[in-house]
Fold each of these.
Amino acid sequence: MNPTITAFEASPDRGQGLARDMRVRWALEEVGQPYDVRLVSFGELKKPEHRRLHPFGQIPTYEEGDLTLFESGAIILHIAERHAGLLPEDANARARAIAWMFAALNTVEPPIVELEMATILERDKNWYQERHPILEDRVRVRLRELSSRLGDADWLDGAFSAGDLLMVTVLRRLSSTAEVEKFPNLAAYVARGEARPAYRRAFADQLAVFTASLPR
Amino acid sequence: MNPTITAFEASPDRGQGLARDMRVRWALEEVGQPYDVRLVSFGELKKPEHRRLHPFGQIPTYEEGDLTLFESGAIILHIAERHAGLLPEDANARARAIAWMFAALNTVEPPIVELEMATILERDKNWYQERHPILEDRVRVRLRELSSRLGDADWLDGAFSAGDLLMVTVLRRLSSTAEVEKFPNLAAYVARGEARPAYRRAFADQLAVFTASLPR
């Protein structure tokens, strides 16, 4: 039986693939695991039936037989532990790849989300002009550190891993800015992720949800 | 050979145990693994020798033979995979405990850190009075959801796990506010974590670093 994930019924980014279901779709495509998608409206997110799957009322969730999971990082780790292709076999390399998963979600993503939220929610506030550059600086600090560690390597630690998958999706959240492009090796890193056949299949599938929602 | 972790030479919270080494100390105490600590000054954090261990110039790091890890979540998962006591044996329960680890770090901690940073960095800005309540609301949304899921259970999903360990340390970051106390079941949950013998040993050890740094 295929696992079922949830995704937004109405793509908030008009099919750019920035919502967190994209990460899970990509991971499932990398390992060749077919899956089903249940689309959820914004109203349904906050209802008890969805809260039972996701205590914080978000997407994606992951259902597979008796198991229900939430948190894209945990879902991807679960997939990576059960299929080859997302984590190295060597125990130390595996632990380091998992460290990059946590780094993407707990060190690099938070200042990016904060910048994104301020751009959406605080644009009319009288502090926006002063505060926005501070948020950009926080993001740049992380990008500079990441760029410095990546150097001229293709991926963060040896072969492509779930750590790279998460980091690429986190960096893509900056696609409406020019921040990543200031670091040519990071821009090339994101492009390398986007060029993977599994990424392209996942992207096309989430885009199809948006396209189908358009009025004819 | 014992693993070696890094911690701040000068406790930024004067021994309250809010820095991220506390999480790793607690996990090591839960599983009964002795460890060594190397103290790092703020200046050393940004030097190349430390950046080789931690690309983002933070603590804690974890060194064990050939393996170097960073990110407290990844370090704790590594410890939990090698010792009994932090993750359930049942595969589905184990995956759910890991989901709570990610939830603590990627869903609950970011708004708490944001509130903390604003309190420290934006107190004299002219927008502080207007923006601070917005940040408090964001934290309360997450606390309400967490409180609702926890209900009258002792821990988030069955027995105490690494997910609870991380969630308790994340909630403790609010200890200079009265936010957690607004949710009695969350306050009791944090107290339950703090009462564990392993927590108390870890707390005493990090406090000793602070006490030793005081002028005599």
Note: The domain at 91-196 of chain A is CATH 1.20.1050.10 (Glutathione S-transferase Yfyf (Class Pi); Chain A, domain 2).
Amino acid sequence: MAYSFVSHLYCPKCQNTYSADEKANVCACGSPLLVSYDYAGIKAQLTKETLVKRKPDLWRYHELLPVKNKENVTSFGEGMTPLIEMKNLSEEYGIKTVWMKDEGLIHTGSFKARGSAVGVSKAKELNIKEIAMPTNGNAGAAWALYAVKAGIKSHIVMPLDAPLITRKEVYISGANLYLVDGVISDAGKIVARSVKENGWFDVSTLKEPYRIEGKKTMGLEIAEQLDWELPDVIVYPTGGGVGLIGIYKAIKELMELGWVKKDKFPRLVAVQAEGCAPIVKAFNEGKRESEFWQDSKTSAFGINVPKALGDFLVLEAIYETSGCAIAVDDDTILSEQQLIAQKEGAFICPEGAATFAAIRKLRESGWIKSHESVIGLNTGMGIKYPETVEADAPLVGKEEAIY
Amino acid sequence: MAYSFVSHLYCPKCQNTYSADEKANVCACGSPLLVSYDYAGIKAQLTKETLVKRKPDLWRYHELLPVKNKENVTSFGEGMTPLIEMKNLSEEYGIKTVWMKDEGLIHTGSFKARGSAVGVSKAKELNIKEIAMPTNGNAGAAWALYAVKAGIKSHIVMPLDAPLITRKEVYISGANLYLVDGVISDAGKIVARSVKENGWFDVSTLKEPYRIEGKKTMGLEIAEQLDWELPDVIVYPTGGGVGLIGIYKAIKELMELGWVKKDKFPRLVAVQAEGCAPIVKAFNEGKRESEFWQDSKTSAFGINVPKALGDFLVLEAIYETSGCAIAVDDDTILSEQQLIAQKEGAFICPEGAATFAAIRKLRESGWIKSHESVIGLNTGMGIKYPETVEADAPLVGKEEAIY
């Protein structure tokens, strides 16, 4: 019984292949690398009936993950996050079924934990001792804390404006933390320079192949949680876009395994903020790559990514599934965040709120039909962004009552 | 197939019984009420084999929960939180096995979600329209947000010094939020007065019988996650003590069902802060009830409870299981919090850190033996307490590198 059926890495641009047993960053051509598996081998070993008895974390899909030796799995029980039916939002939006996949219920309170769980575990397997990365906050927190458990030293560079709590998460982990007065691209350049000089392993978004594998488990879980009947639409807040690429890859792999129907791909939607919408611009212009977005700005900090290395993979996922890309403005994001708390009792992050604001807009425009089923990804807990919420409240005397 | 096998409520002090189909607060004698079930009925319907196929949330134990009609279940997928082996802490403490039950991975990031999930669902079943409660923060946030989903209006009174993020959670839910310049007992008095004047339902700790039922699922999960082999010791940070009472009740019920061995009860440990340790004082004096703790103060805000209504139940659980009660000081709590982040990659709350500091002390004193297995409850995410952590980091220029 193999723990993993990983076979090799391949380049989606030039089709070059690489070993999954050696350290790899990007292809010689500069493209991110993707992971391939022995799908026939998986088919022969893994059944849906086996799966149901496994622990409710993302390692239940270990045959479809790149870690070969179970001993290298570095886990805080991440995965199998709830898929919650949002009946009040369904009514509000006029859509038959609206689910929220709640990625707040995971180590560090952000979906970034999935990428770091698999990425750090594989780094441990490849005997990597020091990693470095730029981050908008949540990814840095997740990688720094997972790295501790794996015995790996990490170096994190973060914009000054990133959510303060993520800075504290990195700090308490004991990682080397640096700040830059700029955006994530500036942090990325510092990291690129530093890994060369120090011989650290660069784990920037899509500069290592395994983060996608962690993120793809969102797609695997969605399929399993819906008893292998996929929804009509999946909506995802898009910065680096790894989650969308991962969900697309997951569904293709499930089709390859024959676990979901081949004829019906959910339409994938990339949501961005109006202050940083390079993927949306490229989509609207029918292009297959995006351009650097100047002076990007949004309160949904996690999706402030002016140019994603995997932009062409995000756009491919959108085009191939008849999906779309859509931008929402910051005021709309914050009012949707409040509405969801007051209608559904869920305090979600601004990026997640952007997702639901987009679902509302897409229903209004008719792109989503009233009879359809839609999943919105909430990528993290609202409590990581306290500055988006006020807290006015009257003071009561100890001898008083309230009415 | 009954969804619930709830039979009635009973008073653990005077043995009076009450219906579980009508609103109930405390017994006429003033004691909290406990929930009883038809255990023979459960035995006949529910098997461990059935359980394994159910969704990974606390409602998998619905036969052992008080909600009769599934339609009233108000859920965000809470429960089946990870039980994580802490190998580095085992080594650090010199204890064979140390697990952390991580209650941060739940709606609102705090174990309070369990009590509110079941309490709010049952309130909905009983047709309750408005609830009121005092809170140290996390419980208020959880009850306010669950109440939204159930269509119940809530009134929350919170000390001024409670964690700011919990104030924001209550605020964004649209609940009526009030602050008091005092401790939770002061908030409790305001609520007691207000429920009388307004006809609201009082859901203060142990003033309604169903919160314990939610909390007891921690005990059910621990047993299931360890394949029905209980650990030697379970350590729990104790404010109101509902979790400890719940875990004790859970294990007794599992013994009644014959799902765990009757001869070996885990020793239950109540951990308090030195600045607020009424249960510890009572335990040290061999008493069965605690006294009000004057001028209580601790950075582990959730366990700042000067006098718990269920103190006698907490002490009973300790005495009956040959457990103990122990206090740790605030400096030790904060240094243990940091150590756990840097040894295990887990950023836990101060209350959770108190738990692990207590495990260390109990091993040092020999009360826990080196060959034993110990579970520590981390009751919430560290990110809810940003003020406990610094975030110093150097600024790097955009054209620089780091070393």
Note: Chain A has 13 helices and 14 strands.
Amino acid sequence: MQLPTNPATISLLGYWIGIAAVAACAAAAVLEVGRKQFDAFGVVVVAFAAALGGGTTRDLLLNRTVFWIADPTYLIAAALAGLGAFMLARRMPLPARLFLIPDAIGLALFTIIGTKLAMNMGTHWTVAALMGVITGVMGGILRDVLANEEPVIFSGELYATAAGAGALALIGLLHIETDPRWAAFWAGSLIFGLRLAAIRWHLSLPKFEARR
Amino acid sequence: MQLPTNPATISLLGYWIGIAAVAACAAAAVLEVGRKQFDAFGVVVVAFAAALGGGTTRDLLLNRTVFWIADPTYLIAAALAGLGAFMLARRMPLPARLFLIPDAIGLALFTIIGTKLAMNMGTHWTVAALMGVITGVMGGILRDVLANEEPVIFSGELYATAAGAGALALIGLLHIETDPRWAAFWAGSLIFGLRLAAIRWHLSLPKFEARR
Amino acid sequence: MQLPTNPATISLLGYWIGIAAVAACAAAAVLEVGRKQFDAFGVVVVAFAAALGGGTTRDLLLNRTVFWIADPTYLIAAALAGLGAFMLARRMPLPARLFLIPDAIGLALFTIIGTKLAMNMGTHWTVAALMGVITGVMGGILRDVLANEEPVIFSGELYATAAGAGALALIGLLHIETDPRWAAFWAGSLIFGLRLAAIRWHLSLPKFEARR
């Protein structure tokens, strides 16, 4: 397989994949809060929280300009995708599973981007891995907190664990001086593959049950 | 009608209206969590979250000095108003509706201030409008999340929608070069009017109910 | 009693007490969410929120570099303590009360550190006291919000009130030019003593019950 080599092509491709992942997370979040009686505004807030919450938390912690303030295309994509899903879902039944694959792509992509951003700022590798996981999963946590539910990622199929494994793989691959594009590709594929396998075979971490 | 023209008078007037709106939001929040068995500390936290949460979120996102750190008068006003409402409400029945009008003034004022601040920093108009809405409504969301309730503004009468309409009106009026004081006055009046009309006639956005 | 006078000894001692307090808060949080069916990841998130949430909120509000990004030892200590408590608690019954004393030490220490940091940045004394309380108690609030429960500190035994009393005592003692080490020691002891007394004799603030 041949990865693209023209830097402008790569970064443009990455940019639009990022926009698409933001839109997919926003739409998926709207379907997941479907059982709540939210109005159009509530739906947009939940879509924003799910799609932009991870990157926003990362940017605040790293003291960077928040990414959607620097480039509002992300904001607009999340709003349009959230409203679109809202309007579609009122007309026809949309299975929540429809968005599992775009959501897994988003998880992989956000985690890789967050880890690389933190590494480029020279943080310790533990901090870089955590920033990757935060970028990948904080959106889902905020969505569930706003909907007043226990965050599903605390108890469901592997989600943050897949993000963590991918972030550590990326850091390891870059440490042994793998080509950064391949490192990102393999680490992202690991996250995507783990997440799909977890959904398919209901893989999960051991649950906590304190003895009393 | 004649708007004041002395800049010092305007800014002093605006300053004290802002302090009063912070105090009103704090007092209103205390009455709204009345059914929870919070103690005086919990009440002050909820009062802070409701009265200062919107502006704090805005300042963190825009990387400005948090407004109540720059000027603690806001902090003191929120604490005194929250404690005052706590002590009064233990002695006599205070209808929650008592604060609906000050709360609507606060919504209008906070939204206008947030939108203008973001515009002055040169953000995209979509970001400026969102900052206005965040400044206006995030306090109420934080209050409900802390009280472990589904945020009422996600499903009740027009609230954020009124804020959004006013923020967009302000941006449009300034775009066609309306005098900034009149633009702020008309956009704020739109928010206040929409909110009162929504309370009076139970106006709300269509609810989300996904087909299954 | 003789306090240590060598500055390097003092700051090294303070540093390791801080690390130990972070670890104790993380372990205590894991035991407190024991009745929820969280997995290992959820447990680590809750441990991070409880142990690092207060200082993180303070650093974001004061626009400082987040302390665990500047020194990831805190991050590693919280993760190891959280996972350790998770694994231990699955094997043997650990009483939640086991951590009440380390938790009270953490409350005292975090509050003193937060207050001093804010004072060193020249904030108003009301802001410095609030920063102390936020550093001391925000971790527990975040933990409960993530676990989808009403924050216990809003209605339980004196907790934030102890922190607030200690922060004000520190500010007062420094104002009358007490030796800073003694001021920190006495204010910290006040917090620790108040908290233990509150647990022992079930001291609490008056509850809010609005008349209707």
Note: The interface with chain B takes residues 60-63, 123-124, 126-127, 130, 141, 145, 148-151, 153-155, 159-161, 164, 204-212 of chain C (CB under 8 Å).
Amino acid sequence: MAAVAYLREPFDPGLHEALRRRLGDRLTTSAAICERHGQDESYHQPHAPDAVAFAQSTEEVADIVKLCARYKAPIIPFGTGTSLEGHVAALKGGVCIDVSQMNRVLRVGAEDLDVTVEAGVTRKQLNEYLRDTGLFFPIDPGADASLGGMAATRASGTNAVRYGTMRENVLSLTVVLADGRVIRTARRARKSAAGYDLTRLFVGSEGTLGVITELTLRLYGIPEAISAAVCAFPTIEAAVDTVILTIQSGVPVARIELLDDTQIDAINKYSKLDNKVAPTLFFEFHGTKAGVAEQVAIVKEIAGERGGSDFRWATTQEERNKLWQARHDAYYAALALRPGSQGWATDVCVPISRLAECIAETKRDLAQSPIPSALVGHVGDGNFHLVFMIDPKQPAEIAEASRLNERMVTRALAMEGTCTGEHGVGYGKMDFLPAEHGEAVEVMRMLKRALDPENLMNPGKIVRL
Amino acid sequence: MAAVAYLREPFDPGLHEALRRRLGDRLTTSAAICERHGQDESYHQPHAPDAVAFAQSTEEVADIVKLCARYKAPIIPFGTGTSLEGHVAALKGGVCIDVSQMNRVLRVGAEDLDVTVEAGVTRKQLNEYLRDTGLFFPIDPGADASLGGMAATRASGTNAVRYGTMRENVLSLTVVLADGRVIRTARRARKSAAGYDLTRLFVGSEGTLGVITELTLRLYGIPEAISAAVCAFPTIEAAVDTVILTIQSGVPVARIELLDDTQIDAINKYSKLDNKVAPTLFFEFHGTKAGVAEQVAIVKEIAGERGGSDFRWATTQEERNKLWQARHDAYYAALALRPGSQGWATDVCVPISRLAECIAETKRDLAQSPIPSALVGHVGDGNFHLVFMIDPKQPAEIAEASRLNERMVTRALAMEGTCTGEHGVGYGKMDFLPAEHGEAVEVMRMLKRALDPENLMNPGKIVRL
């Protein structure tokens, strides 16, 4: 993608001084820190903010937003910077609000299976905190992202096929609006018909409508029995057909992940494993002992009929952790296949009836391209990812990745799918939204203008105004 | 509640003529038909629209909305008129758009476990249509409501504890906006991170942001095994404790419904049953045969420890239908306890850890009141309902029901609950929204003004402007 020039106003010294007065050392304009905050884990061109504010409370975030609003400076929320479509890029400069110091678990409601956290708590930190309660939070994007960022990007991960995404697992949010007012989007009841669904409005809004500062999340009991297994297939079609049949048969599989042969090779090398280099499914089953045994029996039969090799089981917690850590490291493993390369990651999601076709056509494209790439997917949801290992100094490679990405998105849209299942829009996928949503993009614009009339909240993301 | 006078403009003869030209006989100003369309199943004062338009397609709805927008006439969508908070009352007159003739199932995606329907299809009609597919749609409010209306009010019902509410089960909507433009809120992918969640914005918006004309819904495979049972308890606390323990233990119970002694007496008489007159739980378990047996064993143990009597099983489809029909008829059964009475129905939802306390305090209020009432609840969600059997000619009874309702809502809010778990806001619960949502009500107003600047879409509902 060619570098795009964005207009940015100079950073107002009055705002700088006011923020310094409020935050002291926790306001910085250090070039190194600003640069780090303008870049996520994607191939997108970084854009450093003018300043980074390390907030420690909702009240501080509100004060920062109010000051920025007064000086009409853009505001970019920042959790761990692990987004994949340029979400944190300060396209028009302004102030990055880093919430990583807001990392307290505020309450655990073991009886209600819920928890309230500050936005900077990461998913691993939360599960570590919950370790002795018998409860866990299932949403697991590859990175150890902040929960605020995960809500903002409507993240999901490997468990979504069973437990849903952030859309289903956020009960309530505390949000600082564009004018600094603080709202709570809902109470703690499991369901409510009391007015517009503000929770879901902010989940997936990528910081463009407000800054998420606290979250109340659903928790789940750790199942009595957990089994994980790896199964290699003769072809990618056989693996995908196994997924489709499993979902259609109603087996409540907890995880069902596809890795193509390139990706298996990559994780073997990166994580020192010895999986057969072939299209492979990673499974996990949750339930009672008998329930898991039933699920396994059904899935083994489906896989066996499609040439799936014997299941290799990871039975101890340690073996399972190793298996899933390898899966979560897939992105880094793919990059390590081509030393010095940068990752160009993209994802789409289609109705499951079209998944085999969508993956097959995409693989054909990839086979004809000189750029190395790997395919992994949360295929139980119809969602899959590509990572291109590109040399960022070669414009031809960037152009080729861009072309392949566009072909895949166009294909997914033609199959009634979406241009992104879980990475989000950022500024990387904005131009696909009109094709996906048509006139509905105008409704998104109406919402953006209503809640952020000055266009200060993470400007230049999701919709063009 | 005292009768409130609403300002209404006279019906414009130009609009009348234009609508007649477009719809012919399917536009009526018949007083009887208008009156029926201004009244739902609640105690709320009816308000007839000036005209009723029977639409047959999305395009017709769009044309009607455009004409109403041109003449600045209010628009009230209407499905089956079974709402419970005055949702269909034409407070400011205008045109009721009745979608009951839009009752086609447009496609069944058996492979993707989804279906697309017109807004007038009712839940029973859909399940009848699906009968031979092995699939079903689980959301079941008491009435045989239209699916458009169910989405508009974010309905749920007895299966929500396992399958979620309309919030979780609508994949995509076709919506006519206030200016007559038609949008589709999402594609058919199971998950998406492509922009603001317009689907969830319209689910629960009660016709105040647009008219829902088509829906794509999730379907589920009919489980291999289904068992339903009835279990009586010595006290309501023992029954509620059984619910709480069941949910906390992670049993994936499909239905768990509480009926108090009055309600059991009512359904015994109304549906000619012989249940023991005592606080009672109705259960249903879905799964494989072994899975259901496991669930039953756990729940029986929990119930037994709390004095639950033997489970009375409904094993055949016919027995189960009878059991659940009785549950669905609870409202009508309660009214039949006091011939000539009118129902005043209300619901709240609280975190499950507070459910026993909330029900106990509410029952104490009811015991001290002269008005007969019955309590039923989707208690697995923390949601319960009251119906007062009032004589609508007695203002003192209306005032007393209103007082009890307000006490219950205030109690639920103090327990971090919501003023309505599933009935919605309509114009009956508008005044509780500021107490529940605080400053967030202003965000709801911003959304309403952005999408409906002339306040023509079901005006006077959800938020006061």
Note: The domain at 224-423 of chain A is CATH 3.40.462.10 (Vanillyl-alcohol Oxidase; Chain A, domain 3).
